[in-house]
Structures are given as structure tokens and as C-alpha cells.
Amino acid sequence: MKTFQYVVKDEVGLHARPAGLLVKFVNSLNSDVKIEFNSKSVSAKKLFAVMSLGVKHNDKMTFVLDGANEEDDCVKLKEFCEKNV
Amino acid sequence: MEKINGVAASKGIAIGKLKLCLNIEDQIAKRQIDDVSAELSRLDKAKDEAVYELNKVYLNALKRVGEAKSMIFQIHIMMLQDDDYFSTIQHIIKEQKVNAEYAVWQTGKQFSNMFANMDDEYMQGRASDVLDISKRLIHRLDSSLANGLDSIDTPSIIGVTDLMPSETVQMDKEMALAFVTKEGSKSSHSAILARTMDIPAVVGLSDKFSKLTNNANIIVDGTLGEIIIEPDEKILAEYQQKKKDYEKYQAELRLLKGTEAITKNGVKLEINANIGNPEDVEMVLENDADGIGLFRSEFLYMNGNSLPSEEEQFVAYKSVLEKMGSKRVIIRTLDLGADKQVPYLNLPHEENPALGYRAIRICLDRKELFVTQLRALYRASTFGKLAIMFPMIISVDEVKQIKSIIEQVKSDLSKEGIAFSSDVEIGIMIETPASVMMSAELAKEVDFFSVGTNDLTQYTLAVDRMNHSISNMFDSRNPAVLRMLEIAAKNAKNAGIWIGICGESAADTSLTDFYVKIGVSELSVTPASVLELKKAVQQVDIK
Q1: Sign of dihedral through CA atoms A18, A24, A26, A29?
Q2: Regarding the domain with residue range B2-22+148-252, which homologous superfamily does it belong to in the CATH classification?
Q3: Which of B231, B332, B468, B470 is 20 to 30 Å from the Cα of B412, by its Cα?
């Protein structure tokens, strides 16, 4: 299991567009990816679940990756977040 | 071919295809199903089609508006493919053994509520996206279901349960040839909206509304309140001619804009418009009225759940006065009670509301309410040409009381350093037989009379205007009513004040001649009747 924390840079928070991009990207990974935020944990592969977290600008969320490729996927996901979220 | 009748709510004729725009919610029936797996595969197929359709929409948008603005359709696709959303639908079908349409709508509502309840404005906005994709899915399941009002893209006759103001503003007005509605009456919101937009309408079809099917060819006659479904060629030709004649007549009337209402023998009349809302001013100006002869202030009291504040009233009066510029605006003070009730005033149930606690009687009893309105009126008076009139007057004493309250209001405003106009005309409604009998004395107290013919007819003839079984006796041309008018007009003339008419029968062109003869100098009618009346006045010739 790999985890990392990420602070949302997007002004409007994890709204439809970045959430959509994120979910789409996470679905291309082999690992199981969860987001923990505000004592909730949801699958990052499900759009409604991610959006329902209501993550805002400057909020800190935690990604939890699990799977055979978790090391590689973790690097890719971090990179993706820096660019898009 | 079939003919059905409703309420003639807005004049004109339209011929075209009917588009039923019903809330999806009203159309989705809950059905028990036997074959769950068949229903689930219907759902799968509908989803695939919807995704395919959205992909096309996305690619199209991408070309037209670029990546950023097309993203929303990608999001819609992802929402449709979302596991939580889709498995909730499947779950409802399996557990409740219901049809897919119903399951989709239940799920859509559930997810949209989730967004609507988030304390984030942006996310609340996503609630409508969820409903959007759910509707798309439902339409793939059953393509015969009708769309919403916003989906109309060719000029059509629009059939709705009732017209909601929020929906109509979103709609392109060019797309509405006519309105036909299930609910509503001549004075309901939908009817007023249609008249204000000058679109033919037949409302209040009730059960007969179900005879209308989507895409049917129909004729709407908003003047007679008739709808003809699938007309034959003969009827169609007849109505095409009728429509041409009506349009020609309207075009002729428009030529009268900018002309004055002067009779052949040189008497000039002021043709004003009646309004019930600040938004109606557009129609007043559009129809070239000389001013506003009756601005009913009730809307301020009937739209909310509590008494309107002085500020709220001030803003409404000011906006109308400003838009009308140098043209006179006559605002009538609160005329509630009788057929116009508001719950928060807690007015007791009455045996005879028409003869009861209403209009000026409430104002003189609950002075704080009256003072608030007068303060708002006087504060607004510097923004245009204001006149104020008082309803349901029966005695000189009432007018004296009103005038003393006005003096108090003015002196308070002066003390507070608030400006008001010094030449606001004060008038009374002539709508009770008592006011006619006392018109010689009343005329010495005020600047003008305005006759409310509906109530004057009701009280003179002792005919309840709400009672259908005697509606044939309610006749504002009755000689007794006309004699009342003559007396009031004579006494106005003797005292050197002007007299106008703001009731329904002001628009009755068979009486225009009579009004001119007795010395009426102002007529106030609905905005759409202004030009027609102007034409009638121009034809009057009194030797």
C-alpha cells in the first residue's frame, strides 16, 4: 500500500472538470485507488463518489494506492495531480 | 378533426404543430415488471445509445466551442458510466421489480439531491447535470416521452400543464406560435404572460387537454378559445384566411402608434393602460399608451409571505415612474379583501366579502399599513409624474381622513429631510353607488375621479360578479349603470376636475361614443387594447 497527501490547487476545488479528469486517469491505472478526505474514504474510480467529497481549493486529501503496480502508479498519479488538480 | 373549447386567454390565431412540453416527472409511470433481466438489458441498451449520442454531441461541441467548454459532455458520459449511479438503477429494478424509466428517475433524483444538499454553490449546480443525464437515459428508453420547454427548436404551438414564469424566460419567444394549457384561467399567470407577450393562448382545458397528442396539427383560436385538432382542408383554408385578416388588422392598428386619440369633432382623450406589475411597463410603452391609468399595487402584497416593506414598495413604484418618464402613472392603494385574500393579514371569513372589510376600509383601520404605502409612494414621487387613487370610497369623511394622513406623512418626510413632489394628484375610485350620490361633494375634495365599472355594476345592480348563475345579469351597459356614470361625470365637470374609466368596460368600443358625450376624458385598458381603443376614439363623431 502506498499513500500520499495532496493539496488541491484548482481555484474551484475538485469540481466536475478536474474530478472528471482525475477519475478518467485513475481508471487507466491497474491499482486500486482510494481518496480519504474529511473522515470519508471513496474509490477514486467513481465520479459521483469523488465529487460528493466536496473537496475545495487548498483542501488536503490523501490518496491510498493498492496493487502490484502501486509504486509506479503512485509516481504517475502524483505527476498527474500536479498538472491537473 | 375535433374541436375542443377552453378559456380564451390571449387573442390571435395560430396554425401549426403541437409540441407537448411536460415535466418528465408527470409522464413517468411506475409499472410492475415480470421479466427483470429483460428490463436490465433494456437499460444496458439505452445506456450504450445515450453514451454514443453524447459522444457525438461532445465531438460536435469540440469543433464548435473548443475543449474547455465541451468537457461538460465528457463529464456527462462519465456520470452515465458511473458504477454507483448505474448500480443504484439496477438495484431498484431488481428489488422493486419496476420499469427502468421509473428506476432511472428515482436514481437521478437521489443523486441530484446529494449535490443540491452540498454547501458548495458549484456542486449544487451539478444537481441539474444529473437530472440531465437521467432525462437523456429515459428518452432512450422511451422516445415517445415529450421534452421540456427548452428543447423546442422550431416554431410550434406549445402545450403545457401550466406556464411557469421561470420556464418561459428561458424559452426563445420566436418558438412559441401559441400556448395551450391544461390549468389556468383568464386571470391566471399563464394567461397574463401570454397577453403580455402577445401570443395567442387558450388555457384551462382541464380534462380535454388529454385529447392533445404530441406533433398533432392544430389550430388555436385565442380570440374564441377554440382548438381544432387535425383540421380538414376546408377548415384549414378558412382559418388561414382568418389569420391573415387578424394580422392585417393588427398591422393597421400598429400604424396608429404616435397618433393621438382625437374624435372627429376634435375632443382629445387620454388612453392609458392598466398594469399589475412593474414588468408590464414594457407592454404599455410598446402599445403607445399615454400613461398608466391604473397600477394595481396588490402584487406587492400577494407575492410574499409578509407585508412588503416601505423600501420594497419604493423600489417598485420608482422603477415604474422612471420608465414612464413624463407620462402620468396612477397608482391605486391597497385593494385587498373580497376576492383578493392574503393569508398573513389574517382577515376573518366574512358572510359578504364584497360588502366587507376591504380596500380603503382596511387602510383606515390599520393605519400603519397605509402609512407605509403612502410613504413609499411620496418618496417615489420625485422620479416621475405620480397620481394616487383610493378604492371603495363611500363618503366625504373617508376622503378627509385620507387627506389628513397624507398631510402627516408629508410633514414626517419633510422633517426627515426626504424629498417628495408637491404636485401629486389625489383621486378616488367611483365604484360604489354612495360615491356617485355624493360625487358633487367628493369632487370638491379631490383632483380626479376614476370609475371602476366592475364593482360599480355589481353594487348598482346588486349582482354578485362571482356568481355564475346570475352572470347574464352582470351588464355594465345596463341603463342604471350608465346613469350612475352620467351623474358622476356631470358633478366632476361642475367642480372642474377630470373623470376617467379604468374598469373592463373602458375597452368596450360600443360605449366609447357615450363616454365622450358625457365628458369622460381618460380611458384606461389592458395594454393590448390601447391601439384598438384609440382607433375607436378616432371614429367618434358627435354632432
Answers
A1: negative
A2: Phosphohistidine domain (3.50.30.10)
A3: B332
Task: With CB atoms and an 8 Å threshold, state whether A54 touches B119.
Answer: yes
For the whole prediction, is pTM greater than 0.80?
Answer: no
Q: Is the pLDDT of residue B210 over 60?
A: yes
Domain spanning B258-539, CATH architecture: Alpha-Beta Barrel (3.20)
Q: Structurally, how many domains does chain A consist of?
A: 1
Helix (H, G, I), strand (E, B) or coil at B92: helix
- Per-residue pLDDT tens over the stretch A21-77: 899 899 999 999 999 998 899 999 999 899 888 888 899 999 999 999 999 999 999
CATH of the domain at A19: 3.30.1340.10
Query: How far apart, in whole angstroms, are the C-alpha atoms of residue A48 and residue A29?
Result: 19
What pLDDT is attached to residue B144? 73
Partner-chain residue, chosen from A20, A45, A51, that has the shortest CB–CB distance to B74: A20
Predicted-complex ipTM score: 0.84
In DSSP notation, B341-408 reads --GGG-PPP-S-GGGSS-THHHHHHSHHHHHHHHHHHHHHGGGSEEEEEESS---HHHHHHHHHHHHH
- Interface contact A24, partner B, CB < 8 A: yes
3-state secondary structure of B492: helix
For residue B37, the distance in angstroms to the closest alpha carbon of chain A comes to 25
Which residue matches cell numbers 485507488?
A33
Specify burial of residue B267 (Cβ count, 10 A radius: 0-12, 13-18, 19+).
Answer: middle
Beta strands in B42-188 (DSSP E): 156-160, 176-181
Domain B30-141 annotated CATH 1.10.274.10 = yes
